[in-house]
Amino acid sequence: MLNTNLNLPTFLPPILTVDVFTLGNRLLAQTEILNLLNRLRNKNHFHYLIIKFLVCTGLSLPELIHLKIADFNKEMDRFYITNVGRLRKRHIFLDPKFAVELYRYSCEFSPGDYLFPGRDGELRTRTIQKILKTASRMISREIHIPFLRDVIALDLFQKGFPLREIQEFLGHRTKRSTRHRIMLHITEMDHRDPRLFTRNRNQAA
């Protein structure tokens, strides 16, 4: 039986973006996300921006580390991923309010080539891992990048976005990969529904 509790909208926004004020599901509650971001913002603004960026974009670790200001358009509301590793090249749009935050950060702190720079240019993998561990301790939940990508995938699916759009946003090379990540986190009842991955096709953008 199709899960009627999803409350799919009649119309979807024309551009897929992730808003932290509406993001949340059985993997990570909205209150947990907002609590984490509020605590980080008061403690370390740089760490706050990195975690919020991951929550809003679902970037992989290599993508985050190599991201440069030159990859953004002039309004900083979208950027092009080229250093992809296993993932596909793609454009990602940001929520307008968060785009303003990033623009002000880039103007005030002039981070140079990289959006999130390290001491000698490129931010180290170990630094990101430490930031994620700190975030995990704050809400007593393990936070890592694959987990955040799954939170985003499930949230977008439950809001009614078609599988193809979720695949493109996260950079999966096949729909099968996107479907697999979603299937890991839905109910057994939905697993048996033959319409599970076709119900969103009629959602108008």
From TrEMBL:
Residues 22-196 form the Tyr recombinase domain. This is Site-specific recombinase, phage integrase family. The keyword Ligase does not apply. The lineage of its organism: Bacteria, Pseudomonadati, Spirochaetota, Spirochaetia, Leptospirales. Keywords: DNA recombination. InterPro entries: DNA_brk_join_enz (IPR011010), Integrase-like_cat_sf (IPR013762), Integrase_catalytic (IPR002104). It comes from the Bacteria. GO terms for biological process: DNA integration; DNA recombination. It comes from Leptospira yanagawae serovar Saopaulo str. Sao Paulo = ATCC 700523. The keyword Oxidoreductase does not apply. One of its GO terms (molecular function) is DNA binding. It holds the Pfam family Phage_integrase.
